[in-house]
Amino acid sequence: MKEKLIVANWKSHMTQEEAAVWIEKIEQQKTTLADKKIVICPPFTLLSFMQNQITEKGLPVFLGSQNISPFAPGAYTGEVNGQQIKTYAEYALIGHSERRRYFKEDDDILAKKVAMAREYGLEPIFCVENATIFIPQDVHIVAYEPLAAIGSGRPELPEDARKITESLQAKGIQTVLYGGSVTEENISDYTKEESIDGVLVGGASLDPSIFLSLITNA
Ligand code: PGA
What we know:
Blueprint: E1 5-9, H1 16-28, E2 37-41, H2 47-57, E3 61-65, H3 82-86, E4 91-94, H4 97-102, H5 107-119, E5 123-128, E6 141-144, H6 158-170, E7 175-179, H7 187-191, E8 198-201, H8 208-217
Parallel strand pairs: 1-2, 1-8, 2-3, 3-4, 4-5, 5-6, 6-7, 7-8
Helix pairs in contact: 1-2
């Protein structure tokens, strides 16, 4: 069986003090992390801190960004580019529904972001809300996150998620994740599905104890 991929999306949460407490708790139970692949996507402001902590404490986790500039380094005020991200991270979340909705990111911008991630050696984790959404070429990891399930406490039924994730698999996507109100209680309903290689977790990743149980139950 493929190693399960668990991606934590912290969104616009966590200060450095809070992240330090989170890391300390995770370190106390680091054997829990052993047989799964864990990727943490903190805000940009914490990438450097998290990298130091992970190295110092020898935690078997990887880092990802929550976004990436569609441009190369240059005069783009407020943007963080792939070259800068690559200093800290291996992955980049691209096309999260909150980026599409609040920041009007469209197919064209998202394709540029994927190209930039590739250019700087970052692995894109591309988020889609349904199976018909455009997926740029060269994407190997896709997270299926139905809109109604995100942050709502109303996860999609596993049998419905199965249909979409199977169709993503059939399109040749190597790693397919489910996201949307995943908890420590329901995670195994998704990870036991043949077509689901892991999960993208928002809310349930912020509390280290809940996140550890979630990993155990995956
Ligand atoms: P949620 O968020 O787990 O809080 O529903 C998932 C996501 O938006 O990535």
